[in-house]
From TrEMBL:
Domain of life: Bacteria
TM ranges: 21-41, 47-68
Protein name, UniProt field: Integral membrane protein
Keywords on record: Membrane, Transmembrane, Transmembrane helix
Organism in which the protein naturally occurs: Streptomyces tamarix
Length: 85
């Protein structure tokens, strides 16, 4: 059914979901890196690394926006194709 929605097969919001997933993964890796000095007993990383770790939350929000956009497009399409009573 997904291939029937658009000619390219991609729904609105798919790009946001992919970008959000990449941002989330980058943020998760940065979070692991910032926690490592606590266990290794080394010097903490600079503030920039902590700011990169915030990408995890940003990525989650971007992906959630993509999911909501995709849901809205699917509902709109279902309304257009549904027979009127």
């Amino acid at each position: 059914m997904r291939s029937e929605t658009t000619a390219s097969g991609a729904l609105p919001g798919d790009g946001l979901i992919r970008v959000g997933a990449v941002l989330f993964i980058i943020g998760a890796i940065a979070t692991l890196v910032t926690v490592a000095p606590l266990f290794l007993g080394t010097e903490p990383f600079p503030t920039a690394v902590y700011l990169v770790a915030m990408l995890m939350g940003v990525g989650f929000l971007v992906a959630a926006a993509g999911v909501l956009r995709s849901i809205a497009a699917q509902r709109r399409q279902a309304r257009e194709t549904a027979p009127s009573a």
